[in-house]
Amino acid sequence: THASAEAVERFKAVLPLVLTELSQVDNQTLALERSLSVLASVMNRSVYLVLLKENLQAIKHLLQLCALSAWMAEVLVKYPALLDQLLDESILYEPLDLIGLKQEASAILAETFDDDEAFMNQIRQWKHAQVFRVAAADITGHLPIMKVS
């Protein structure tokens, strides 16, 4: 797809931040290639480029996860809403325990009890976020393998 002039300007605003933070990660070539594929996938979705521009921590997490895992980059390309997960390190690397999972799932059910389609959409997005968080905690070493399992 072709990017609008506005999208290109937003990309140009994010790129220097990405390049500056790149020096802080290992596997810089892979991190850059993968993170650029994520950025390219959201070029025409201004909210995500603005999110990254305004949140240096999100860029740091994006580069770190892309450096460590092609799968994480592919998931972000496929489900760009997961970029929201990069905003808060305490959430990103701390997957919910069973009680927390049940509470959040119940809250989604309560919110959407009369709308099956809304429930399915929200529960699907929620599931992707939970898997993403477990994977992020796993590959960065924030969670021991027994907890990941």
Automatic annotation (TrEMBL):
Pfam families: GlnE. It comes from Thiomicrorhabdus heinhorstiae. The keyword Nucleotidyltransferase applies. Residues 60-149 form the Glutamate-ammonia ligase adenylyltransferase repeated domain. It comes from the Bacteria. Keywords: Ligase, Nucleotidyltransferase, Transferase. The lineage of its organism: Bacteria, Pseudomonadati, Pseudomonadota, Gammaproteobacteria, Thiotrichales. InterPro entries: GlnE (IPR023057), GlnE_rpt_dom (IPR005190), NT_sf (IPR043519). PANTHER family: BIFUNCTIONAL GLUTAMINE SYNTHETASE ADENYLYLTRANSFERASE_ADENYLYL-REMOVING ENZYME, GLUTAMINE SYNTHETASE ADENYLYLTRANSFERASE. This is Bifunctional [glutamate--ammonia ligase]-adenylyl-L-tyrosine phosphorylase/[glutamate--ammonia-ligase] adenylyltransferase. GO terms for molecular function: ligase activity; nucleotidyltransferase activity. The keyword Transferase applies.
